Amino acid sequence: MLINQDYHTISGNECILSCINNSLHHIYGKDLTEEIFLYGNGFAHEYHPASYNISTGLIHSGFAYLDKMNISYVRERLGKSRKAKRSLECFIKEEALVSICAWSQLLTYNPVFVKSVGAPHYINILGLDSTEYYISDGYITFGTRKVYQCSFSKSNLLKAWKKMGYEYFLIKKPEGAKETKLVMEEEMKLDLLKKMLMEYLTGNSCRGYKAVTCFLKELQHQIEQNQYFSALIQETFYSIKIMGFLKSREMLFYILQNHIYFPVDVRELYYAVIKKWNELWLRAVKYSVQNKREKILEIIICMQKLHMEEQKVLMKCLKVDK
Description:
Elements: H1 15-28, H2 33-39, E1 45-48, E2 53-56, H3 58-68, E3 73-77, H4 81-93, E4 97-103, H5 111-115, E5 120-128, E6 132-137, E7 148-153, H6 154-162, E8 167-171, H7 186-201, H8 208-225, H9 229-242, H10 245-258, H11 264-289, H12 293-318
Antiparallel strand pairs: 1-2, 3-8, 4-5, 4-8, 5-6, 6-7
Helix pairs in contact: 1-3, 2-3, 2-7, 7-12, 8-9, 8-12, 9-11, 10-11, 11-12
């Protein structure tokens, strides 16, 4: 039984955001990627001293957007496999827009997932038959393919879902909602973007720009002192990928690129910043495999300089007028 036959998967920059955007797109026919990121404050940064780590608002922006738009949703875990399977079948029969959290390593349609250490990954469920579910994944990270909308083994999906405690969420269309309320005018997007960047640049010691400063300073200290520095770098890289450090920057560039307010030189400068962030993290991981502490420390110093370069580019964005 296939539901939502006119469903069209849109590519996104993060799996939860992609699931929410694709569900809303199916309801309203609007791509709300930018609205979700801006209203949900997706570029917020917070440093966590206890774990020496940093998170961004990207992975929370989807639910923050739903809350602000008063769009009802349910998010919970189903404790037992029989209950989970029955519930998922009921959601599909009711044509509910349901997303599940699965263990990525068991999602064999994506070779990158299979070869990785595994992580939580959210996908939308569109239908089922006796042996397969029909799924939508708007966050594919390999090759030229950007989305996956096709059938997938029922047994494999249930295993991947079970490993994440049968977590799911579903979005309900609010009665009497006006579609136009969800889409922002260009000037409002610019205002929200400036507000978001101002909050980042003026945050306290655990938030915004200073959060990244503290994070890099502590990472440098940990690499200098920790005998397991190689493992630490690899764990940190895994964490910043999951928590959206790099993807939040890609999302910001996506918005800069799509709006005429931002001059070409500003876009190019920020694209260069993103490229450097990715290159430096990949080099740090490479040196961790080679067990080269001094090289990693050199990379962190480069990151600290890049952090200041990024600040200058973001300040240029604040000066852009309507």
